[in-house]
Amino acid sequence: MGRRHGIRNSVSFSQKKRNQKHKHKDVWDPAKTRMNYVDTVRESEAFYTYYKKQNVCPESEWDQMIATLKETLPTSFRISGSKMEASAMLDVIEGQFFEELLRAGVDPDAAITPPKQLPWYPDRFAWQLDISRKDIRRSEAYYRLHNFLIAETSSGNISRQEAVSMIPPLVLDVKPYHKVLDMCAAPGSKTAQLIEMLHADHQPGDPPPEGFVVANDMDNTRCYMLVHQLKRLSSPCVVIVNHDASLLPNLQISGQDGNLMPLKFDRILCDVPCTGDGTLRKNPDIWEKWNAANGNNLHGIQYRVARRGLEHLAVGGRMVYSTCSLNPIENEAVLHRILQECEGSVELVDVSTSLPGLVHRPGMTTWIPCSKDLVGYEKYEDVPEQWRTQVRPSMFPPSTEDASKYNLERCIRILPHLQNTGGFFVAVLNKVKALPWEAHSKTRESTDKGELSEKMTEASQEKTSNSPPVKKRRTDEETIEEAANADETQEKSNDTKPPKRNPKKNHLTRGFKEDPFVFFTEDEKLWPVLQATYDLKPELSCTSFLTRCEAGKKKNIYFTTPALRDLIMNNTQRLKIVNTGVKAFVRCDNKAMECCFRLAQEGLKYIESFIGPKRRIKVTKEDLVLLLSCRDASCPPEIEKYSTPTQEALNKLEDRGSFVVEFEGKTASGRPLVTTLVGWKGTCSVRAYVGLDECVHTLRLLGEDVSDFEVNKFKNKAENKAIEEAKNDEEIQQESKQNVTAEDTEKNNVDVKEENDSGNP
Ligand SMILES: C[S@@+](CC[C@H](N)C(=O)[O-])C[C@H]1O[C@@H](n2cnc3c(N)ncnc32)[C@H](O)[C@@H]1O
């Protein structure tokens, strides 16, 4: 992931967070402000009245649902990484080490609640702990567990994520060759899961997957949360963009014949902005703010994002619509509106059996739109004038006779009490033919070859001029977008000619500040130097590499896949790209080296198979442990400390500088462990260029004791406090000593003065 640059975002995300914290500190008056969630009143009469009216859960379960909503949420996490890496990690979670973490600090005779595996998540890769995230963070008893979760998260080996939020990516069913769009992606826990699915089958030495993920969010600041979140996965298959998803521009890619064609996605996640009342357990402040108008106000944007998503979806493709809200106005009402407009071109899919063990309720087929004052209406005509901007005709449920047309019961509702989670809503949609308003006869088909692939869209041919029912012009940007759509329609009607490219930056990207994404061309001067230094095989094309500067010294060199490069190169005028690429080489101006770039650990996985024998060595387990256990980068292990074969191999490396360290062995639990990392050969020592958390992870898999790496922040804090207090005491003593001396001096002076004044000789 590249460096960002922008006038609007010159302060880093973490800095902003710190500032925010600081701001709160300044204004916090415990008497006036409720800073603690423990004090938050977890009650809302409006919430109860509204959801009782909606029949959101059977009367018999109501008390249980509300009681669960008032409890804090358990901690859940997924084991991530490729299947091979994840299986090794699973051994750690299921093994003695993890039990020790839970036991630490607890009475040795006390029973501990072991982590629970989430039964519906494949391969036993998702777990839940009966302790809240806050308790883990705040309790000294869990400091080792906290260390573990933090380190493994930052090295990309686990992802802490709410259990229910893992469902949408699962039912999206992403394959490594899919083109995936995540429309509202930040902060990115689901995007991370989508990327992991692309890479799930990756084995060491394999090329990166063909597919890619376009992760979009409208909020520029939140896009950087995405950058941060996705960086730890080191994927060359993701691009982060910054658009209003309801106006996401049409994109183009190169077809097999070399001509440009519209990009249609195989999979789309539409995890729309919502009231989030399913997250009350995690965000209790919502209790206080809850009102019926909030959901009504979001219905419009939720519908527009979903509709735009379907326009970007290939025929035969799948889109998942999800919210963390219980409100039918944000859920079934949006889908009902969409399904009505799509006239059979989109269908709800029944995925109820695809996640065995997941307890859920079916989607609602009827509901009661309400105004903010909680008055419900059976039909739009009953809505008083004053509420007609809030309660819209499209929010009403289908009539009883029509209900069966839409299969809304195929939606999945997760209620908090069903399996001790947050509340959630998921619906899976398949696009079976072109949308009625898609004004061309042939739509791009999903990469998935199915019976649909032969289907032409007869209905759409008949209705080429049909528009979706709501076609009111809203904003300038929308007008621009419609113009862009019209352009594309023209492009498509002439299949033989590549569409024209707009040479100038258009309205969509004007004013957007980011360093450029500059891909290497075949004649890149640096490439022969990199090729010679790292013994790069000719199959590795330099055109997959990019930098973030047009001219001057290149700092980092990033790697992307050819498919992503094609997407970026063909849409620079349309897309507001925030970030892409994984760091492959880092500038390192070392006098002793001819090539001023070293290898970067982040991208090594994808380029190491192209690095020839001149710049790689195999090491034993003992060597690897020695290399990774070094905590002082200024004092790396000397070459003579390594095994004799490793010393010989190191001596054979022609120059100083970075090289690939290969290890092929077994984890402590006997699973195969194949790993590569960036080593650095100095004059008489060798070190690893690997982040601390990744070192700890590998050492842990090898069964090494990593307790030396653990930090007990409570102990440190107490020690620092004691040091501070001792310092203060010393200062006070010093001060009082000085005062005594000063007093004595003053007294002496007075005595002398008095003596002088007395006229004594
Ligand atoms: C529910 S959150 C998404 C959570 C995310 N999918 C995840 O799992 O981490 C909704 C996101 O939508 C973004 N958003 C709101 N309106 C949007 C719009 N019109 N287009 C794109 N993103 C939007 C918000 O900034 C927010 O990050």
From TrEMBL:
Residues 1-28, 440-509, 725-761 are annotated as: Disordered. It comes from the Eukaryota. PROSITE patterns: NOL1_NOP2_SUN (PS01153), SAM_MT_RSMB_NOP (PS51686). GO terms for cellular component: cytoplasm; nucleus. SUPFAM superfamilies: S-adenosyl-L-methionine-dependent methyltransferases. Residues 15-25, 499-509 have a biased composition (Basic residues). Its EC number is 2.1.1.203. One of its GO terms (molecular function) is tRNA (cytidine-5-)-methyltransferase activity. Residues 65-432 form the SAM-dependent MTase RsmB/NOP-type domain. It is found in: Nucleus. The active site is at residue 324. Residues 440-461, 489-498, 744-761 have a biased composition (Basic and acidic residues). Keywords: Methyltransferase, Nucleus, RNA-binding, S-adenosyl-L-methionine, Transferase, tRNA processing, tRNA-binding. S-adenosyl-L-methionine binds at residues 184-190, 217, 244, 271. It is an enzyme of class 2 (transferase). It holds the Pfam family Pre-PUA_NSUN2. One of its GO terms (biological process) is tRNA methylation. Belongs to the class I-like SAM-binding methyltransferase superfamily. RsmB/NOP family. PANTHER family: NCL1 YEAST -RELATED NOL1/NOP2/FMU SUN DOMAIN-CONTAINING (PTHR22808), RNA CYTOSINE-C(5)-METHYLTRANSFERASE NSUN2-RELATED (PTHR22808:SF1). This is tRNA (cytosine(34)-C(5))-methyltransferase. It comes from Frankliniella fusca.
